[in-house]
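Reply to dn_fold:

You asked what the input looked like. This is it:
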Amino acid sequence: MEKLEIFINYETCSNCGTCSEICPAFIFELDSVNGIKIKQDFIHLCFECGQCMAVCKTKSIFVKSLDYDKDFYEFSDDDNFFSIIEKRRSVRRFKPLPVKKELIEKILDAVSKAPHGDKNQHVEITVINNRNKIIEGLLLMSEFYDKLAKWLHNPIMRKLIQLETGKDKLNTLINHLLPRIEKGIYHNISFVYDGITRGAHTLLIFHAEKDSEEHKEDSMIFVTYATLAAQALNLGSTIVELVPPPINKIPKLKKIFNIPNSHEAIISLIIGYPKYRYQRGIRRNLKRVHWL
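and this is what came back:
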């Protein structure tokens, strides 16, 4: 595989440090003396999300595969559904504020209008609007992912994980998650920021009885409605898959978040007030469209 190259145009860079806060892989670092620098030993963690380029006001950051003219677009001034979609990003930094209850209730009301696969509603939502409570759970989640890294290096445990989750999920764990665990991304836990919930003060967990009909599919529909509703309310959000696995494996986590033991967590959503606003959108091409 060709080595990914990232570089900064220091002639135009303002050394604002936004890229160092936005990057989920901590590839950029703001040095008080020399300004922004690239941590070469972290470059392999880049999955070319384009966030650094989308947030850079001076267009000074370059990720090899991405081009400002070809892979990004300017936001429109429209205020409609399609404008909401084009402006929605996975927010990586939030202001240190809990979301107002009335806004969460509006998001939940939007979710209640989503279709579901069974005539009965099975999915429940737990709302944690307390950063200290989230941190309490994060400490256990960090320990869980440290153990997972050891399991992934064990051939027998790796096979068991594949049998439980499938080959596709195992590939994600090995290629995407494991390198980040080993670089300590999920060890950075503080009131201001962490590598899992990104410093959010508000966390929604979608969960249901393990054997209930269509609960996994419905959870994914509901979290999509929730993230679009958050954007419509000028809030930021990110769908997080890192939260449910440790909840489902650690009884103490279920107790912390008051989730019934008979339930499984499917997906989670972090919500908050974005610390930074993106300057442009990132184009995402479909893999392939087949017309018949």
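The mean pLDDT is 93.
Hope that clears it up.
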